[in-house]
Amino acid sequence: MYDVDVEVLEDDDEPGYQSPTVPKLTNNAPPVPTLQPTPRPSSSPSESNSSGNSDSGTDKLLTSPIAGILVEFKVRVGDTVKENDPVAIIEAMKMNTNISSPVSGKVKEIKSNPGEAVQQGQVLLTFE
Question: What are the pLDDT digits (tens) for 4-43?
């Protein structure tokens, strides 16, 4: 609990004193439109799973969910991972973010190097 002492410096009832007036606020601005998500066209499985240079077309990709600096990979080529296993760390805005495997499988190829800047959606590695 706080004790507060108030000292009157000026009396509002004195002649010549005029209290400040606050203008009445009105909202004449047009309503802000709400954005509706635009549906993305679905791609065929071969387009979404292909790494572009794969001869089998059955590779699964791990893409960066955010832009940042790739700090490290927690896996190597040939390692077997389960879905949701941590496979990489990306630093963005001075925070490290663990990147988990979207699928179970074997790491086929690492497409980026630690210390490199990565963009959102950039392929980091491929799985068999």
Answer: 887 776 665 666 666 667 677 677 777 766 666 666 665 4
Q: In what order do the strands lie in the sheet with 117-118?
A: 95-100, 86-92, 68-73, 117-118
CB contact at 8 A, 112 and 121? no
Query: 75 lies in which domain range?
Result: 49-127
CATH number at residue 57: 2.40.50.100
Is 70 within a domain?
A: yes
Quick check: is 105 in a domain?
yes
Q: Which amino acid is at 121?
A: G
- Note if the pTM is more than 0.85: no
For tokens 């004449």, the residue is 28
| Backbone dihedral angles phi then psi of residue 46, each to the nearest 5 degrees | -70, -30
Alpha helices in 43-99 (DSSP H): 45-49
Q: Is the residue at 96 inside a domain?
A: yes
The whole-angstrom separation of Cα 126 and Cα 102 is 11
Distance (Å, rounded) from C-alpha 9 to C-alpha 3?
A: 19
Residues 6+ apart with CB under 8 A from 80: 105, 106, 107
Domain total in the chain: 1
